[in-house]
Amino acid sequence: MAHMTVDDVRRILVECAGVDDSIDINGDISDRPFDELGYDSLALMESAAQIKQEFGVVVPDDELVEAETPRALIDLVNGLVTEAAAA
Amino acid sequence: MTSKDGLNDVNGRNARTVITGIGITAPNGLGTEAFWKAVLAGHTGIAPVTRFDASRYAASLAGQIDDFDAAEHLGSRLLPQTDPSTRLALVAADWALTDAGVSPDTLPDYDMGVVTSNALGGFDFTHREFDKLWSKGPDFVSVYESFAWFYAVNTGQISIRHKLRGPSAALVGEQAGGLDALGHARRTIRRGTPLVVAGGVDSALDPWGYVSQLAGGRVTTATDPARAYLPFSADASGYVPGEGGAILVTEDEASARERGVQQIYGELAGYAATFDPAPGSGRPPALRRAAEAALADAGLAPGDIDVVFADGAGVPELDAAEAEAISAVFGAGAVPVTAPKALTGRLYSGGGPLDVATALLSIRDGVIPPTPTGAPVPEAYGLDLVQGAPRDRRVRTALVLARGRHGFNSAVVVRGA
Amino acid sequence: MTRRVVITGIGVRAPGGSGTKEFWDLLTAGRTATRRISFFDAAPFRSRVAAEADFFPEAEGFSPREIRRMDRATQFAVACTREAVADSGLEFAGVDPYRVGVSLGSAVASATSLENEYLVMADKGREWLVDPDYLSPHMFDYLSPGVMPAEVAWAAGAEGPVTMVSDGCTSGLDAVGYGVQLIREGSADVMIAGASDTPISPIVLACFDAIKATTTRNDDPEHASRPFDASRNGFVLAEGSAMFVLEEYEAAKARGAQIYAEVTGYATRCNAYHMTGLKKDGREMAEAIRAALDESRIDPTVVDYVNAHGSGTKQNDRHETAAFKIALGQHAYDVPVSSIKSMVGHSLGAIGSIEIAACALAIKHDVVPPTANLHTPDPECDLDYVPLTAREQRVDSVLTVGSGFGGFQSAMILRAPEGVKA
């Protein structure tokens, strides 16, 4: 199973929640908090559903809310992907 | 008295409610002036359905809004969470508020509310989610389905977009509900909230939504867009469903003047609603009563009304009943009657507010737009139906009528400021 | 002169019993009606618990023709209307029909019927171009549910203003508020007001699954609705209806009507914040409560009982606890607060009216219904939530609140009018 990159996160966010006109999400967004990027909990939940479909892992609700930046989400998802591959 | 909810009328039962902003999304025009120009020129928004292949369905026409780029107006952030009807409503509200010169800090917190009517919900959106649920499973249903579908969605989204925290509501009453929303806006203003964004916008032109409208049995099967929806015509064969509507900014007149409002289109002078008796009860239909009560509420006599914007169902027995009610109130042929909605199709909750907007433009420009059918009106109707060219005439007052399936009757009187 | 509005008739169809009496028995016994979903196979869903009502249309006296014509949500509303009208003792034949109106609340109206028709027409989602050959003649009414208030109007002979109020989960409270306003302003003398929702269906379950708003306590359905408890993890979907006869007070008094309560205050606000999220501070709900108290011209300390929205989601229960503290001040800690959703679940647009019925009965019987399943309060929910057991005490003035998607926050004050209670 593939690992998730920051471009995957960007693409999935745009697909699931669009882009706030006043915010530039191009460039390195890895460490910018989601709320600063204009994404709320619904946007992340919708994205988590898409991540499940693409990467085959379920991000637990309580861990999803803890992931405040794209990097944290990537680490979380890729950890789950690696775990699933090892199992 | 600090309450803005006085079940008592804080602003006073006789405080005037005025319309200070108009936002229109209609099949024959986006924006007030584009729409008004189309109405006076007789340009129709009715055409064959293009959103899907309607060839298997009994009907084939709709009043579609085709030149609307939601992303251009709203940006992309709202698109994944909104139905086409909500996008139209949000843009209409944006335009109305801009027209009225209102921004979130125009009035103190809680002093601006939203009342919309909605008859169809976010149906295109929900149809797609039903498909995901049943073809792929619950995990594929969008997080947005929980609110993109329900009837309160336009009120909630408009409230959030413009930071309107005052008393708000969503009403459902098929094609009459849009006038009820205006009536409730005035009620809310009289109870102490100085400004209420009000109106209605609907759309359900996905295959399931479209065919569900046909189930009502009143949609015409005619195929010529110019000869399909013919209110008050001898050839009437039903209506064409459309999408869109109007959002208005309604305000307490004193408050509007105090903030230096740019323009006042007119006063929401009268409102009333009635309901037809149960089928088979033998009691008379109640549209006449609604019209009379709205006139009384406005303090006007029938002779004071310059034009009637009719519901114009386009179904012979319903047209006959409306003509009878109008004649009973005004006398046969005694008042000009028009139904420009023949150019847009019936817009459900959007129909009444769009007619009110049209009536206000009539007042502004001194012209009555025609009913564009060109077809003969049965003599028995006793109607002075404005047909052919627009009729130039000073218009100070207008009565707007709307009826909803199963017996809703609502009436609004507007008067020049 | 100000026209006052009173409740003179009540009809309830809620989970766990049929009719107003059984509803009140359930609440005062602290029993729960939440169960594993039986209406369909809920195995694929995240939340598999609901509060289903035992509702038998034939036993309700509906004819076969009425059963075909009215969908479940409409049947609930009409059954409650009939009960409320009978309970009121009002001779409708003696009232001008134009002075009788209807305000019916519903959040999702005919959603369940829509889904049933969809499965046939779309061949379970296989056809985007639904098959018109399977189009039900009722489909229009499921798309645009004006028929629901219409059936209520016909059942009561109402020919005045009729509407459906659809403000999501505050619909049931707002519909009664709407009816009260119409009588106050003189647009009607009698209003049939209340709400109905029967949303227990795959699509509605899936909606709330997606946003994780419903409980996952699937192995313990009877104890799944846990407002204010530290272990709560979402609401329990439910169905039901409550309808009222509202009358102008002087007219009701003149005919010697039984009067349950007067609606002395009502207010609603929007949070203009988020379609589903709530700010922690509860500011807008507090403002609605403040306005409703203000209109009732009472001090917060007069309130004997607070009927909470108490849905049992993490965010709601904290949000409204914060709102009560702002609006009621120190009295928030002294007044009993409870959530009947712990027993009858959350029937979306209907529950606000069902809760008003509970409040009117609390005033009538001087009993505060409990919050079931509350064993270990959330430390952030530190009020007196009347855990487990109903409380006998004087109840003359009640505050009830609602909160819903779209940002709606509503509050209503019900009071026993002077001289009604000994």
What are its keywords?
heterotrimer; A: mainly alpha; Non-ribosomal Peptide Synthetase Peptidyl Carrier Protein, Chain A; B: 417 residues; alpha/beta; Peroxisomal Thiolase, Chain A, domain 1; twelve-stranded mixed beta sheet; Actinorhodin polyketide putative beta-ketoacyl synthase 2 (chain B); Ketoacyl_synth_C (chain B)
Would you mind describing this structure in some detail?
The complex is a heterotrimer of chains A (87), B (417) and C (422). With 87 residues, chain A is mainly α. Chain A has a single domain (6-86), classed as Non-ribosomal Peptide Synthetase Peptidyl Carrier Protein, Chain A, CATH 1.10.1200. Chain A is built from 4 helices and no strands. With 417 residues, chain B is α/β, with parallel strands linked by helices. In chain B, strands 1, 2, 5, 6, 7, 8, 9, 10, 11, 13, 15 and 16 form a 12-stranded mixed beta sheet that branches. In chain B, a hairpin with a 3-residue loop joins strand 15 and strand 16. By secondary structure, chain C is of the alpha/beta class. Chain C has a single domain, classed as Peroxisomal Thiolase, Chain A, domain 1 (3-Layer(aba) Sandwich), CATH 3.40.47.10. Chain C has helices at residues 19-29, 64-69, 72-88, 111-121, 139-143, 147-156, 171-185, 202-210, 249-254, 283-296, 314-328, 331-334, 341-344, 351-365; strands at 5-14, 17-18, 35-36, 49-51, 100-105, 162-165, 190-197, 237-238, 240-248, 261-270, 305-307, 337-338, 367-368, 391-392, 397-404, 408-415. In chain C, strands 1, 2, 5, 6, 7, 9, 10, 11, 12, 15 and 16 form an 11-stranded mixed beta sheet that branches. A 3-stranded mixed beta sheet of chain C has the order 3-4-8, with no helix packed on it. The longest helix of chain C has 17 residues, at 72-88. Chain C is globular. The chains are: A mainly alpha (87), B alpha/beta (417), C alpha/beta (422). At the B-C interface, helix 4, helix 5, helix 6, strand 6 and helix 7 of B face helix 4, helix 5, helix 6, strand 6 and helix 7 of C.
